[in-house]
Amino acid sequence: MKNLTKYYLNKDILFKEIKEVSVKDLGSRKKIEIYVATSVFKDYYAIFLINAKSRFIRKNAEDLIILCEKLAQLQEHNFKKKELLISSPLCSKAKKFLKENKWSVRVDFM
After folding, report:
1. Is the torsion defined by CA of 91, 96, 98, 99 positive or negative?
2. What is the sign, positive or negative, of the torsion defined by CA atoms of 102, 98, 36, 70?
3. What is the pLDDT of residue 48?
4. What is the pLDDT of residues 13-66, one digit of tens each?
5. Res 29: pLDDT
6. Residue 39: domain span
7. What's the predicted TM-score (pTM) here?
8. What is the CATH classification number for the domain harbouring 91?
9. What is the pLDDT of residue 110?
10. What phi, psi does 25 have (nearest 5°)?
11. pLDDT value at position 47?
C-alpha cells in the first residue's frame, strides 16, 4: 500500500482514504490486489493492481470488468474512476477494450 500511495502522489493525486478489499469477498481466486480509495476531491477510485509475469490478454480484461461489477455490488457504489496498475506486458486489444469501457490503464507501476 505504501508503493501505491507513493505512485499516486507522484501523479499529484492525494487520497483521503484507501481500503484494501479481499479477492475472496468477491468470490474469486485470482492473484490481484484490489483497493477502494477516495481522493481529496471526492472522486471514488477502484484500483486493481496486477503483478504477473505473463501477458495480460483480452480474456483477462473481461474478467477484470466482471470483478469490478462485483466490487460495485459489494461496496454498493459505482466508481467514478476505475484504474488498472500493471507491471506485466499488456495486449493491445485488451488495452483498447478497457479504454472503451472507461478504464485508465497504467503499465508503468513498479
Report:
1. positive
2. positive
3. 94
4. 889 999 999 999 888 888 899 999 999 998 999 999 998 889 999 999 999 999
5. 85
6. 2-106
7. 0.90
8. 3.40.1350.10
9. 62
10. -65, -25
11. 94
Cα dihedral 28→33→36→41 (10° resolution): -150
Q: What is the DSSP letter of 54?
A: S
Which helix (H) or strand (E) is 51 found in, with range? Answer: none
Structural domain count, the chain: 1
What residue type is 97 in one-letter code? F
Cell of 8: 499516486
50-72 b/e with 16+ CB inside 10 Å = b? beeeeebeeebbeebeebbebbe
Residue with cell 506486458: 89
Q: Which of 32, 8, 18, 14 is nearest to 104 (CA)?
A: 8
